[in-house]
Amino acid sequence: MIGSVSAASLALGGVAGCRRDAGPPEPPDGHRVYEMRCAQCHAAKVTTIGPSLHEIAGIYGTDVDGVVKWAKAPGRKRKDMTQMPSFGHLMEEDLRAVATWMLEEGKK
Ligand code: HEC
Predict the structure, then answer these.
(1) Rounded to the nearest whole angstrom, what is the distance from the C-alpha of residue 32 to the centroid of ligand 1?
(2) Is the residue at 23 inside a domain?
(3) Has residue 5 been placed in a domain?
(4) What pTM did the predictor assign?
């Protein structure tokens, strides 16, 4: 039992971790960055731990820089929510890619 649980989490870790290793550098994939870094707290249409992408797109429109700025140094806006952790350690291009993707997705 214990063996199969850890095998499963190893397999998951492998999928998330190894795609970047080989081949020429690819342009950052905003959807992938979202799945890895943001999806646990931000869903497309419903409020979960953080606001939905729909709400975020409603606030930021096409302001990719605004989302990047927030992700580097999140403020404290919503009294009923926890503080969002900072993503200042991510690469600028990953932040821009995920911000662009979020705003596109949130418009749908
Ligand atoms: C651990 C949970 C968590 C993760 C992971 C997370 N967020 Fe958040 N996010 C929050 C919470 C909570 C808020 C609301 C904070 C508030 O209003 O005080 C928020 C709010 C936001 C907002 C709205 C800011 C505003 O002006 O209202 C944006 C944009 C955002 N997050 C982007 C991101 C991006 C991009 C990522 C991934 C790189 C991400 N978040 C990952 C929890 C998270």
Answers:
(1) 16
(2) no
(3) no
(4) 0.83
